[in-house]
Design goal:
The chain is an alpha/beta fold. The protein is 37% helix and 14% strand. The chain has helices at 35-46, 64-67, 93-96, 141-147, 152-172, 184-194, 233-243, 256-262, 275-284, 298-305, 318-321, 336-349, 355-362, 367-389, and strands at residues 3-4, 11-12, 23-27, 52-54, 71-72, 106-111, 125-130, 178-181, 199-200, 221-224, 247-250, 267-271, 288-290, 310-313, 328-331. The strands form four sheets. It has a seven-stranded parallel beta sheet. It has a three-stranded parallel beta sheet with strand order 10-11-12, sandwiched between helices. Strands 13-14-15 form a three-stranded parallel beta sheet. Helix 7 packs across helix 12 (336-349) and helix 10 packs across helix 13. The radius of gyration is 21 Å and the shape is globular. The two termini are 30 Å apart.
């Protein structure tokens, strides 16, 4: 079996599969191809006949590798047009993952919300690839409520609900046999939230598809992101307004109306675009702007694979993927002034950034490395457990 991580990209050697290992996959929801779904693709290729359990599935929103398998959804799927408002159903999600799963040897969950809270069949291992513990119920609860502008009784009720979710999230962590964290930042969160240790395996980056090209850099900065409040795209837009810089914004989401209202004639919104368009803009922009605090962040590594510097907020996953003065710059505070000062410093030194060094750094996150590390870990724990059981 051949592995094509990206159309017109590269081929990995076939994964060695233990046909006797019965596997069930679990993922929070299937509504688009983001970082979590890129990890899920690898799991689906490793175990092509494994059933996939998910809260909701928007048909056609993911790659064929994911779509072409048995997909089991929750009762939330029956709600009309649920893919438009499923995030508001957060209080119901712990009940929605209460599937009765078939007998199996391994449940592998890919989780940033409730997927890791499933109850596994007796005797089965549960490996969780944790993109982050449920951030809105733990460390980002205050910003989650602030972004929605809730106050009074509504805010009080929301805090009660999030506190119960956090308690459920901590309790169900006991059902996970092994945690895999996508970054050192998430490893620390797992320890803080669940009192558990984890191994760190960074997610895969398609460094074959995302590569440099002999094209001239143009006079614009770039943002590639969903329009969620915690992404802080408002900082990038207001900074470009303040300094009179051109900005291209690729993406969409719940904050689109607000962000468009902030923009001026120098800010261009392109909506979601095909990967070829993303790559083209990464190759031509001055730098990628990454103003939010992320758990890991695949896009900055894709930018560096194209030889493009990254200006990122100096917290979260960017501290593990961006090297100040070599592959980009960190800014210290999530303020327009801090980002603007960092941009001005970057512009003084931008000719010193070597695309070859940026790409060499990005190759440390290549997809082959991810597959080797992830499945070596899976093989080690499943073989050890099966031998003990025998």
């Amino acid at each position: 079996m051949q592995f094509a991580f990206h159309p017109s990209s590269f081929i990995l050697q076939p994964f060695a599969m233990d046909a006797s290992l019965r596997v069930v996959l679990v993922h929070d929801w299937l509504t688009g191809m983001r970082g979590g779904e890129k990890v899920l693709e690898f799991l689906c290729r490793r175990w092509p006949s494994a059933p996939l359990y998910t809260l909701i599935h928007k048909q056609g929103s993911c790659s064929r590798v994911i779509e072409d398998r048995p997909i089991v959804t929750s009762f939330l799927q029956k709600l009309p047009r649920v893919e438009r408002y499923y995030r508001y159903l957060l209080p119901l999600m712990p009940w929605a993952v209460g599937w009765r799963m078939p007998a199996c040897d391994l449940v592998f969950s890919s989780s940033h919300c409730v997927a890791k809270g499933v109850t596994v069949p007796p005797g089965a291992l549960h490996i969780c690839y944790c993109h982050t513990p449920m951030r809105y119920a733990h460390q980002m609860q205050d910003s989650y409520l602030q972004d929605r502008g809730w106050s009074g009784p509504k805010k009080w009720l929301a805090r009660k609900i999030l506190a119960r979710l956090a308690d459920w999230d901590r309790r169900t962590a006991a059902g996970v046999t092994h945690f895999i964290a996508n970054s050192q930042v998430v490893r620390q969160r797992i320890r803080a939230c669940y009192g558990r240790d984890s191994v760190v395996i960074n997610p895969p980056v398609d460094t074959h598809f995302y590569s440099p090209a002999h094209v001239a850099r143009e006079d614009f900065y770039l943002v590639l992101s969903a329009f969620a409040p915690y992404k802080r795209l408002d900082l990038a837009i207001e900074m470009c307004r303040k300094l009179g810089r051109k900005l291209v914004v690729i993406g969409s989401g719940q904050d689109e109306k607000k962000l468009r209202h902030l923009a001026n004639e120098h800010i261009q919104f392109l909506g979601w675009q095909p990967d070829e368009v993303l790559r083209d803009h990464l190759r031509r922009c001055q730098a990628l702007l990454f103003p939010g605090e992320e758990d890991f962040g695949i896009v900055p590594v894709e930018a560096q694979a194209c030889g493009t510097p990254v200006i990122a907020y100096g917290r979260g996953g960017a501290t593990e993927t961006v090297i100040p003065g070599v592959t980009g710059r960190w800014f210290d505070e999530q303020t327009v002034d801090s980002l603007a000062a960092t941009i001005e410093q970057f512009e003084k030194e931008r000719d010193t950034y070597d695309p070859a060094r940026l790409r060499a750094h990005a190759l440390g996150f290549r997809a082959e490395r991810f597959a080797d590390e992830l499945f070596a870990f899976v093989d080690s724990v499943t073989n050890r457990t099966l031998k003990l059981a025998a």
